[in-house]
Specification:
The protein is an alpha+beta fold and 214 residues long.
Length: 214
């Protein structure tokens, strides 16, 4: 007989997270952890859950891919007219969660989201595989569609139309940057006594580092 959900257990024992060992800059600390995940050959190490809300406060979450992380924040790309795009227009506050289960680590990020410059989006769009560029042009993201055939036919029409020459970036497609004011690093520990270190942005531009109870 298979185990019930209540019976599923995993003891975390791979590492610890100490204040003395982390970088005073949370972005640099995040980059360190991300590179560890990449080096460990984890599947989609840049995958992150993006949580948004609409004007009524109703939350929504989905997994997207991080495409850039530097001192300015976390960048991802999408259709501005998608559900997430409409929600971010209504409320630019958002949250991210990275889960690297094989390393028994997760990172939470909170902050304000803004659109990046069109030139930045265009530069990234040109690096995408041809099929992905066609997909961005063909997709009416988050809109109801009667069946799969409609989307496939639209894609094939565009593939024929742009069989030669550049594929234009859709005007409704581009990047967002989440500018963080809070980051929390979580390392699983034995007995559910996990390590949690939180960085909170300060008015002087620095960061306050605090330990949280698990």
């Amino acid at each position: 007989m298979s185990k019930s959900l209540a019976e599923l257990r995993h003891d975390y024992a791979l590492g610890a997270l100490c204040e003395a060992d982390v970088d005073p800059d949370p972005i640099k600390q995040f980059q360190r952890w991300l590179q560890t995940a990449v080096a460990a050959r984890l599947p989609e190490p840049n995958a992150m859950t993006l949580a948004t809300t609409d004007r009524t406060g109703r939350p929504s979450a989905r997994v997207v891919l991080l495409k850039e992380c530097d001192a300015d924040g976390f960048v991802f790309f999408t259709n501005y007219r998608s559900a997430k795009g409409r929600q971010l227009q209504q409320n630019p506050q958002a949250a991210l969660v990275f889960l690297w289960l094989e390393l028994e680590r997760q990172v939470r990020v909170e902050g304000v989201v803004e659109q990046i410059a069109a030139a930045e989006s265009a530069a990234y769009f040109e690096t995408r595989p041809r099929d992905s560029r066609l997909g961005a042009l063909a997709s009416h993201q988050s809109q109801v569609v009667a069946n799969r055939d409609i989307m496939d036919q639209r894609y094939q029409q565009l593939a024929t139309q742009y069989s030669e020459g550049p594929i234009p970036m859709p005007e409704q497609w581009g990047g967002y940057r989440l500018k963080p004011d809070l980051l929390e690093f979580w390392q699983g520990r034995h007995g559910r006594m996990h390590d949690r270190l939180r960085y909170r942005a300060q008015p002087d531009g620095g960061w306050l580092l605090q330990r949280l109870e698990p």
